Structures are given as C-alpha cells and as structure tokens.
C-alpha cells in the first residue's frame, strides 16, 4: 500500500524518484521543453517514456510595487470581498430565501471590512521590515528531456528533424 494516495488515488511508481535514462535535448525555458515533447507526441513517440528535468534551481523575487497603507487597505478589502462573496453564496445555497441578494451584499461588505482591517494591521506590524510587494518563483536555468535508453535515438532523430 506504499503507492496509495489519500482518498484512494494511486501515484505512479516513478513519481518520487529521479528519472533514469539519456538526455536527448536541453532547453533554456520550460516552454521550449514542452514544445519538444509536443513534437514527439505528434510523431507518435511513446511520451510516457519522457521526463522534463529542470536543473540548477533558483528563486527569483520580482518586486511589484512599494507598499503603503492605501495599497494594503485596497488589497485587503478586495481579498476580503471575495471571501465574503464566497460565504454569502454558500450560506444562500444552504438556506435560500427571498432576501438572498441583500444577504450576499452584507456578507461581501463585512468580508471587505475584515480583510481591510486584517491587512492594515499586518502591514503596520511588518512595515519597517518589508515596504514592498513582490512575487516569488522557483525557476531552473535549463530543462532537459530524459528518455529511456531503448528509445533515445528515435527521440533524438525526431527532435533534430525540421519541424513540419
């Protein structure tokens, strides 16, 4: 029962191990590697034998904007609004009445208020340590296609052939 997932799903037998085989091509971006796998798939290559392996992982944090109380309030209100809408619709589905629209509006406003308050408080606490907003990604510097040795030459030939 080692390859069982919660709720009865099964994991592939090779999901937690590094793929073994030969590197048939290396690309600078994930999109290029995906395009190569698509080319192999269109040529009726057994793509179950292919793995895309990212190497030299790096974290990249892109700074989006300077943080301020106004930005914190707006982003908190918007995220709270979505949460309030969700709970409003959820509760209306559980108990529909003729007054469901005002109930949804009230839940949305309450959610926006709590979201704004929470975001302003958290910004006030962390203000001097982090005065900007950003997104973080983990990216690889190269992506290699690894295939089993018995089909490696076929994959190389298909990838070296001019695209049709």
TrEMBL record:
InterPro entries: GSP17M-like_dom. Pfam families: YflT. Residues 22-100 form the General stress protein 17M-like domain. Keywords: Membrane, Transmembrane, Transmembrane helix. The chain crosses the membrane at residues 72-94, 100-121. This is General stress protein 17M-like domain-containing protein.
